[in-house]
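Why HNH endonuclease? Reviewers of the renewal asked for a concrete example.
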Amino acid sequence: MPIRRELRSLYPPHWRRLSAEVRFGRAGGRCERCGRPHKALLRCLPDGRWFCERSGTWRDGRNRPARWPNLLDAVQIRTTKAVLAAAHLNHDPRDNRLRNLHALCQRCHLLHDRAYHRAQRWKTLRRRWAIGDLFLGLYA
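Here is what the prediction returned.
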């Protein structure tokens, strides 16, 4: 996942090597929460279940065996590619200790950062309202 330009100064110069060590050295190319393999095409359901080709079973969001989808669930199966990223567990990009970094797929990374994204969405909404009030008058 690319680093935003305004945050690049917070990451160390050897970030690519450190990220690769976490994702492929320690985690073995699999998400440390759900076990999804890096860059594999997966069959997924909206509730987080996914089909593991290696074991031939459906897994839940915590990499535990899950029930097979019924006919109604099977209609919602989609194919996606899981890509691993090194995530900071304490949300501080300056803290690059190995115990603070985990290899997470996109789904687990978004779930981990959910509270941060919710706060950012609230700030963005309030900022838009303030700009609208400042330049366009009160909303109807």
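The mean pLDDT is 89. This is the kind of structural detail the renewal will allow us to pursue systematically.
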